[in-house]
Design brief:
The chain contains five helices and eight strands; from the N terminus they run βαββαβαββαβαβ. The protein is α/β, with parallel strands linked by helices.
């Protein structure tokens, strides 16, 4: 009997020099991923893009706002500008449509969700862990299954087979030691080796 595939998606926030070795790990295992970037931070020390502009080649770039504020605490006009400017600068820099979004600090409001729809985003990721991530009740409040360092990562992975999608996220700067890099490499390798798992782009879900 043919085994049903579980689609696996991942995304990484903020943009950091650790994205360079992280992307190398992902490429080695044929893993797809989205990188949620703050356009205004890309020229600051410690960020990946000035050192290696092609670091994200082959991966998806998504919007993480222009300046990484608490959008729900801003005026509507200021939040709209931060969202739209962030998206435009990423599109101009990478020459590709930017359709995904991740909420800075994971916080949002109904008004911010509407701004994201107006700006042309297809989905927006929160930091709320859920058992069944897909399909979301609202694409502008797309909850993942867990953080990549969650102690129950593999238990959540197994339970996600029931709905057919597993979604995890993180920051590359959280991988701090050689031992953590080895563990991350093994984590991605284990998913790739799962005959029932298939790496897909987040936008492919929609």
């Amino acid at each position: 009997m043919k085994q049903t595939k579980m689609r696996v998606v991942q995304c990484w926030d903020d943009g950091h020099e650790n994205d360079i070795p992280l992307c190398d790990v992902l490429r080695r295992h044929g893993a797809k991923a989205s990188f949620n970037l703050n356009a205004s931070n890309m020229e600051q020390p410690g960020k990946a893009l000035p050192k290696k502009p092609d670091v994200f080649d082959g991966f998806t770039v998504a919007n993480h706002s222009l300046t990484h504020p608490h959008l729900e605490q801003m005026t509507i006009e200021a939040a709209r500008a931060d969202i739209i400017d962030g998206r435009k600068r990423l599109q101009d820099r990478f020459g590709t449509p930017v359709l995904g979004f991740a909420y800075p600090f994971g916080t949002y409001s109904p008004a911010v969700m509407e701004l994201l729809r107006e700006a042309g985003h297809v989905y927006a990721r929160t930091t709320v862990n859920v058992e069944q991530c897909f399909p979301p009740q609202d694409a502008m409040a797309f909850h993942p299954n867990c953080h990549f360092l969650a102690p129950d990562f593999w238990e959540r992975y197994e339970r996600a087979r029931a709905c057919g999608v597993f979604y995890f996220w993180g920051h590359s700067y959280e991988i701090r030691t050689p031992e953590m890099w080895e563990a991350f490499d093994a984590q991605i390798a284990r998913i790739t080796a799962d005959p029932a798992a298939e790496w897909v782009e987040l936008l492919d879900l929609f």
